[in-house]
Specification:
The complex is a heterodimer. By secondary structure, chain A is α+β, with helices and mostly antiparallel strands. In chain A, 51% of the residues lie in helices and 30% in strands. In chain A, strands 2-1-3 form a three-stranded antiparallel sheet, covered by helices on one side. In chain A, strand 1 and strand 2 form a beta hairpin. In chain B, strands 1, 2, 3, 4, 5, 6 and 7 form a seven-stranded mixed sheet that branches. In chain B, strands 8-9-16-11-12 form a five-stranded antiparallel sheet, with no helix packed on it. In chain B, a hairpin with a 3-residue loop joins strand 4 and strand 5. Classes of the chains: A alpha+beta, B mainly beta. Strand 2 of chain A pairs antiparallel with strand 10 of chain B, so a sheet runs across the interface.
Chain lengths: 111, 253
């Protein structure tokens, strides 16, 4: 599994504005690798330094929460597809009705 | 009896009663006689001022000096002024109330304009170190508190964890360093919160654990051994994580 590791810096002024006394503290932060998490690392890693490590272990299977989340996402997409289909079908029915009317008018003109 | 003698008798009567008065009463009742009564303060009240102290050792040395000249079961107030290098005080004037029980047993209570009440005790000849009643909880600062857990001093610290993960899964943070050995800092109590602002105090705040409207877990966190583990159920990178740990140091002397 790939991870991103970097040092996170926290700075705090323990003095006053007139007599500042800035204290720095560092903390190791480890995130699961993804392109978006790498962007976070680029943004907040001390001196922009981070490492990507792979421990050789397979990616962990998605958690139950992740599966539910994925399912919800799929359901949303299915809903949107169904709505698109319904709207397309409605449009087709309008077109069919217009075609029927046109055929009726042609028929009446002929006879 | 001459007018002079009458005044002297009044003065002597006041002076005799003065030794019995509480300091606050003294200030209220003898207004105008301060000059006449200078150096007449009772033996138990020793008011001193120490200036230009530039180290915590210097502060403790000044307090020790006062303790050494105090009798047992007496109290005093001393004024301290020091530079920014003296932590936890910083640049500030502070009043310290000192009570001496006996040699090697005393308590010093500092009334600090910025940090509130900070207490240091000496028993058996050893100072405990300055302990906070209500620490100001600045980011990344370890505060020793007056609280105890299983008899051990309790420390409190607020950690900023930066942006939360953009992917579902677990992130790890090592607040006591990556070489921390589990058990060196035993965090028996932890509070976690997420905030959609980097300043640490404004914005939309969510305490953990957090669930969504369907009851599904959005975020959870724990302290485990040497690290903080923060679980996110999805993209929470628009939020910043914070942790407040209360811990003891089991191997502390």
């Amino acid at each position: 599994m790939k991870t991103i590791k970097y040092q996170l810096l926290t700075e705090v002024n323990l003095g006053t504005e007139d007599a500042p006394n800035v204290k720095q503290s560092f903390m190791l932060k480890v995130l699961r690798w993804s392109e978006s998490n790498e962007e976070i690392a680029k943004e907040e890693a001390y001196n922009g330094e981070y490492t990507i490590e792979d421990d050789g272990e397979p990616e962990p299977p998605p958690t139950t929460e992740q599966r539910v989340s994925d399912l919800e996402e799929q359901l949303i997409q299915a809903d949107e597809t169904a709505i698109d289909l319904y709207e397309a079908q409605e449009k087709q029915e309008v077109i069919n009705a217009q075609q029927d009317e046109a055929l009726m008018e042609l028929y009446e003109m002929k006879y | 009896m001459s007018e002079y003698n009458i005044q002297m008798n009044k003065y002597n009567a006041l002076n005799a009663g003065y030794d019995q008065l509480y300091p606050a009463t003294k200030i209220a009742n003898v207004d105008g006689l301060d000059t006449a009564l200078q150096n007449k303060a009772p033996a138990w009240l020793v008011s001193k001022s120490h200036t230009a102290l530039s180290s915590l050792d210097g502060v403790m040395s000044a307090i020790e000096d006062d303790l050494n000249i105090m009798s047992n079961r007496t109290a005093t107030y001393i004024g301290l002024h020091f530079s920014a290098d003296v932590q936890p005080f910083g640049t500030m004037n502070t009043i310290v109330e000192l009570y001496k029980s006996s040699n090697g047993y005393a308590i010093a209570i500092a009334y600090h304009p910025l940090h509130g009440i900070i207490i240091n005790r000496i028993y058996g000849g050893t100072w405990t170190g300055w302990e906070y009643l209500n620490p100001p909880m600045a980011l990344g600062v370890e505060y020793r508190t007056t609280e105890r857990h299983m008899g051990k001093p309790v420390y409190k610290q607020l950690f900023a964890l930066g942006k939360l993960s953009s992917t579902a899964g677990k992130a790890e943070y090592y607040p006591f360093g990556e070489d921390e050995i589990a058990g060196t800092h035993n965090a028996f109590s932890a509070d976690f919160y997420a905030l959609n602002s980097a300043d640490g105090y404004s914005g939309w705040m969510i305490t953990l654990p957090a669930y969504n409207i369907s009851g599904r877990l959005d975020m959870a966190a724990k302290f485990s051994g040497p690290r903080i583990e923060w679980y996110t159920g999805g993209d929470w990178s628009s939020y910043y994580g914070y942790a407040i740990l209360k811990y003891t140091k089991p191997y502390e002397d």
